[in-house]
Amino acid sequence: MLQIKDLKAGIEDNQILKGINLEVKAGEIHAIMGPNGSGKSTLSAVIAGKEEYEVEGGNITFNGEDLLELDPEERAHNGIFLSFQYPVEIPGISVSNFIKTSITEKRKAQGLEPMPTKDLLKMMREKMELLSIKKGYLSRNMNEGFSGGEKKRNEIFQMAMLEPKLAILDETDSGLDIDALRIVANGVNKLKSADNATIVITHYQRLLDYIIPDFVHVLHNGRIIKSGGKELAHELEEKGYDWITKEADKQWA
Amino acid sequence: MGLIENLKSYSEGVQVSADKQEVLTSFLTNGFPTTKDEEWKYTSLKKIITNEYTIENTGAVVDASTIEKYSLGFENKIIFSDGKLINTPSIKGVSISGFADFESNTTDSILQLNKALAQNGFTISVDKNIVLESPIEILFFITTENNFSQYRNQISIGENAEIKFVERIQNLNDSTSMVNHFTQIHCAKNTKVEYNKIQNNTPESRLIDTVNVYQEQDSTCDINTLIFGGSFTRNNLNFEQNGSNCESNMNGVSVLDDNQLADNHTFVDHKSAYCRSNEMYKGVYLGHSKGVFNGKIMVRQDAQKIDAFQSNNNLLLSDHSSIDSKPQLEIYADDVKCSHGCTIGQLDEDALFYMRSRGIGIEEAKAVLTYAFASEAIENISVEEVKLLAQKLLAKKLNVDLDFSL
What we know:
The complex is a heterodimer. Chain A is an alpha/beta fold. Chain A is built from 8 helices and 12 strands.
């Protein structure tokens, strides 16, 4: 589904990603872990198409298509979804209106008519139930005045509504208490299928107790320095990052 | 030649009373205001008064389909065609008739001209305790080319009455037209009035619109102004609060492109204690458009416990657009709450990316954010049809096919 080859990217003159290789297949869950500043959020921003980041080398293909040629909205139409670490507040637009607009735009790109309002509302109610979201939430302004937990839940709600092929969850666990974490993880697990894939970006192992990854990758200084199964996450939790980052630093010095 | 000359020769052919003649002479001597006049510092009339105009011509008949096209569909319609009143609704407790002159302030040369030569307009008198849920729609059609017209309207609202209006001036040809529009509103005790102005005229239309509102105690008056069309729009809203517990609300949305200019001048004269005023003006400027906002708030010495709020927020969406914004607070009482704020900015890049990552195209994302920006002022409008029209016009102006309702 997603193939990243020797990806080098940065912002202005500062190279942050120094050669990333990653392959994600349908049905898989990948966790990308790493210390602060290792390039985790840059990687997700580059996949989603944030324009401040300049790609200096390598390529990304998504279902055979050159992703780097596409605008962020086209990537979304093709099935990529990024759950933001810091979701943006948009005063003046209700959650329901925002989601309606994004679904309508996605359908327009696929040559489909807008979804009838009745069906849309029904779908929203179902997904709200899945994420234990209270009534009244739909008419609130997008992320305005939301708590950290509410913002993250809103991200997953949008994901549920947009049904992406590849979801990237960027630090979705930060700012969540344990109950909210369970609800969010439960939502992600329920949305999981053999046709979609998930990349979970996280600093801590905690989220991975609820969303069990098939693969764990350690990102450090712009490179994936170690990959393994879910047990790697436990090892990192016990021993920290130092034991592998030191080794890698020696190698790349 | 030019408008002054056109007006001179027109006035030679009409009979006016001695007091009007005096006002007219004063106007013709001093002419239109220039940018040396403080109230017109940022808005030049020079270009629009050098054109040739035909004065007060009566023209073609306006057919039913044209009326339908520009109407928001309210049952009660007052319709003018080139100054001629062609339809008045009959509403219990509301008397509606054509032009009848009235006393007004003539310190302003624009109002002098209106006082001296205006011969058209409406007179509305609302009996006390009348409450009308559905708005009265007032449509002014211009059918003749290069028309200069003046309206002089008066509305008197009896005690405890509640009423809403939706007004629209529409040129039916592409030629240059200019309107000097003046409306005086008297709000008696405990009245509630909402006046909505839809200013979406043809690209070569010019408008100077003045509304003077006189409020008595416990009255609330809202004036909402939506500016989308016309090449030149100047609005003067003047509120005078003459009793306690009055509330004056102004909401304005301007969405301009090309070489459009819109100037909103507001003045609230707080003469009595325990009153409120709220102003919210949102401007969106594309192309080479220009905006002006001047908000004056006067709190007189005896007007204690005043709560006055004013905000003017602007989005400059092109490198060639501009805005001049000026709050003017004169406060002579010591126990008042007055606040004002002005912002000028661009669309938030992070929000744009956020929306694009959700599949919303860049133009649509800009439109949604622009709508979100303007919505705070639009939300204050109570007439649903006007709100929906504002959303539609906004989407159209930003060239996107979006429906903001759910």
